[in-house]
Amino acid sequence: MAGTSQTPPAYDPTSVDRWAPEPDKRPGRTAFQRDRARVLHSAALRRLAGKTQVVTPGTMGPAWDASPRTRLTHSLECAQVGRELGAALGCDPDLVEAACLSHDLGHPPFGHNGEQALNEFAADCGGFEGNAQSLRLLTRIEPKRFTPEGSVGLNLTRAALDAATKYPWPRGAHPTDPASRKFGVYEDDRPVFDWVRKDAPGTRICFEAQVMDWSDDVAYSVHDVEDGLHAGHIDPNCLHAEPERQDVFQVARDRYVPADTDPAELAEALDRLLAQEWWPHGYDGTAVAQARLKDATSQLIGRFCLAAETATRTAYGTGRLTRYAAELVVPRGTRMECAVLKAVADLYVMQRAEQERLRADQRVVVAELAEALTARAPDGLDPQFRALFDRAPDDRARKRVIVDQIASLTDTSARSLHARLTGHA
């Protein structure tokens, strides 16, 4: 198929099916427009405003008082990137945007740190994974549609749920890395997952989900560095100093690229970025510096998206690319540039000593909150989760309800509930 202009099939009729059939409230909207609207109006999306992305909101840096991204603003920016990239490749833009808006809904308070603590607590009831939680939230927890059998969540289309699924396999079934902790469905959510993945080719990730995943990578790699500069945590001059550069490359090899990647390849990727005329070689918080930094973020996003669009079109031609008709092609050099940016933010923002102290405290909050809810439930649970707890058939199911309750909290509400239940401020 490479190099051809053959047009793949458009969306098949089953892609707009919903788990629970329902009539349109207002004629004229497409199924995917309805999906996008449902996610956009969800309480789960609003709660992301209270979940930290990387830099804690309100922190004072030496340059200026930053207004960094939250999980909500990150999701909105990811959605803008994904919508435009998807449209350029022939995807339905509303479908891709719905997936991008959904991709972080299942993240608990305190981000990946909270995810780790919840996974330890839930080890004997199926574990915890933010992406599997997103599917659970979309199909079960977020109140929107009810059937005689219970809630069906937002009742999105099959294609929208598939597009929001980064890891279409259960725990321990990663197709290439058995040790991976990434998975996309809990065992008790298998019925709807199997319906979503009906006729899908194995564990292959649909094209829209690949666009969403790359848009997520682009948005957070670029914006985390921007927020780090705004907050005064990143000194651009360090990227020219050899000891610091090697530290960046080691973080990249530990977390963002294959471990056997040659540091020289990462050095070349970083140097390509440093050589761009728009690269911010300094930052002092002035209006001019802010404008130059904003231009740099725009240039980086355009660079990463255009590289993927061009490579994918080269491989698959000019037709409409949807569902399982293509794979998103991102050049290796572009992935290395993106990985280097992730490593810069990781090293200089996330690995700061005060951040590690904060993360340790956050893990204690989640662990103690889980312990307190286990001892007192259904006391302490929100009305929605109290009802689910009362109807749960066994201890395993009751523990999953407690996990769902904690995962739904914001950073602030988690600390507030922890203080109320434990008496520890």
Automatic annotation (TrEMBL):
CDD domains: HDc
Domain of life the protein comes from: Bacteria
Ranges where the record places region Disordered: 1-34
Keyword Hydrolase tagged: yes
All residue ranges annotated as the HD domain in the record: 71-221
Keywords from the named record: Hydrolase
Pfam families: HD, HD_assoc
One MF annotation (Gene Ontology) recorded for this entry: dGTPase activity
Biological processes annotated in GO: dGTP catabolic process
Compositionally biased residues, Basic and acidic residues: 19-34
Similarity field: Belongs to the dGTPase family. Type 2 subfamily.
Record's protein name: Deoxyguanosinetriphosphate triphosphohydrolase-like protein
